[in-house]
Amino acid sequence: MYIQVKNVTKIYNQNSPKASKALEGANLDINCGEFICLLGPSGCGKTTLLNLIAGFEKPTEGEILLDGKVVNEPSIKYVTIFQNYGLLPWRTVQGNVELGLESLGYDKVKIKEIAEEYIELVGLCEFKKHHPYQLSGGMQQRVAIARALAVDPDVIFMDEPFGALDAMTRMKMQDEISSLWEKKKKTILFVTHDIDESVFLADRIVIMTPHPGKIKSIIDVPLARKRDRTNPDFLAIRDKVFTEFEMKEKDRIDYYI
Ligand SMILES: Nc1ncnc2c1ncn2[C@@H]1O[C@H](COP(=O)(O)OP(=O)(O)OP(=O)(O)O)[C@@H](O)[C@H]1O
Predict the structure, then answer these.
(1) What's this model's pTM, rounded to 2 decimal places?
(2) What InterPro entries has UniProt attached to this entry (predicted)?
(3) How remote is the CA of residue 43 from the centroid of ligand 1, in Å?
């Protein structure tokens, strides 16, 4: 097993009157190369679990192993892509993609070569001399993805990366990240509260519920890619997820009768 979350509880501000239990008794095993979505409503501990696995936070109880080693701190082998892209405004697209590579100690020619390869992969060749303010939100997110992939990380953490995008751009980015994942087969942990997004992207969906944050269940998504959002199999899994959250239309109708 590549990532192991063993009985992990996280309490922020422990031993203070402000103590809050964000996550309770989480157990999760992730295989190398899997695309995992953490799905749930606000406050269910998705970001907390992501930050614990990425090493930005420490568990209050339990432990997390990555490739057999206890996670204690963030590592250069794991990259995180946030909702706000995290691009440097004074650098061009090329400069932003080169950023992570510079810290790996490659020479200038190699850095330029690798950056160009990934700029091409996300379809931004014509824009490599542009600055972030000259790009749309979707294009900025593609730069962030190119920058993340360029350092050839073992794991990519994505915390609601498409949250700020309009619906059409968001679907296009879902297509792109899904086909990039197929090409590169990186282990991806992707936080979302969008049910359709999780069914479109994930190999497995980790269903989380709040008060306190818990892993409620895990749903397999054994659908071939590229996925069709209108296919009956897609809709059946979507339905299953709705049932897990007790949000099915049938239940609401019963309630009103
Ligand atoms: N640094 C922190 N200090 C104290 N409490 C925190 C901290 N971070 C998160 N929490 C609390 O822990 C709980 C889980 O938060 P978390 O951000 O992990 O949930 P989430 O599912 O990612 O929510 P959202 O979808 O709104 O981002 C919430 O009640 C939140 O207020």
Answers:
(1) 0.89
(2) AAA+_ATPase, ABC_transporter-like_ATP-bd, ABC_transporter-like_CS, ABC_transporter_ATP-bind, P-loop_NTPase
(3) 5
